[in-house]
Design a protein that fits this description.
Elements lengths: L9 H6 L29 E2 L7 E2 L11 E6 L4 H9 L9 E3 L6 E3 L6 E2 L5 H6 E6 L11 H18 L8 E3 L17 H10 L3
Parallel strand pairs: 1-5, 3-7, 3-8, 4-7
Antiparallel strand pairs: 2-6, 4-5
Helix pairs in contact: 4-5
Length: 201
């Protein structure tokens, strides 16, 4: 893949996928084929994105990691995993956080470049975290989602020396050239940054 070539807009790709509507009670804590030993974050479940939806790299040696980018899926958890696993979608994120219980899936190794920001420079230098929900539905931003996502972000920041502030923990809407609005006006940045700074791995 030509790294300089712009990738399709992430939200357009997500909108094109069919949703699998499963009750949370039917989603197991871990799935067959999951390999917990390969995750970078110990609390995560390995749910790999297609190799066609990421760029293999050797970060942080090849590219410095200096920020975390917060996303909202505009889809359900199971449907988002299916999108990341579909080689035709050309989209992925390093992590996905489930709304109901804060369960974390890792979809791309942190050493690799996930295709989440729509900006190659920002993709190479960031860890992308998707959150199950819709920007216009604040009820998806549960206490569990905030708490577990903040622990994940704190761990990333500590491991790569990323400052735990709004200059280095940003929303997708803040990526240069984006047409996205996530995580949206209902995302509580004050609460989130407070939790990140109180959290440790």
């Amino acid at each position: 893949m030509d790294r300089a070539r712009p990738l399709p807009a992430r939200r357009l790709l997500l909108k094109g996928a069919a949703l699998a509507a499963f009750p949370y009670a039917l989603l197991p804590a871990s799935h067959a084929g999951a390999h917990p030993a390969v995750v970078d974050y110990p609390k995560a479940e390995w749910q790999p994105a297609s190799g066609e939806n990421r760029t293999a790299a050797q970060r942080p040696d090849e590219y410095d990691i200096d920020r975390v980018i917060i996303h909202v899926t505009q889809h359900a958890y199971a449907g988002t995993l299916s999108i990341f696993q579909n080689p035709e979608k050309r989209v992925s994120a390093h992590y996905l956080v489930r709304s109901a219980d804060g369960h974390v899936a890792q979809c791309v190794r942190e050493s690799d470049v996930a295709w989440h920001a729509g900006n190659w420079d920002y993709n190479t230098r960031s860890i992308g975290i998707e959150h199950e929900g819709w920007v216009e539905k604040p009820e998806y931003f549960t206490d569990a989602l905030y708490a577990e996502s903040a622990r994940l972000t704190a761990s990333i920041c500590e491991r790569y020396g990323v400052p735990k502030d709004r200059e280095h923990i940003i929303g997708h809407a803040e990526v240069p050239g984006t047409d996205h609005t996530d995580p949206g006006t209902h995302w509580d940045w004050v609460r989130y940054l407070r939790l990140v700074n109180l959290s440790s791995e």
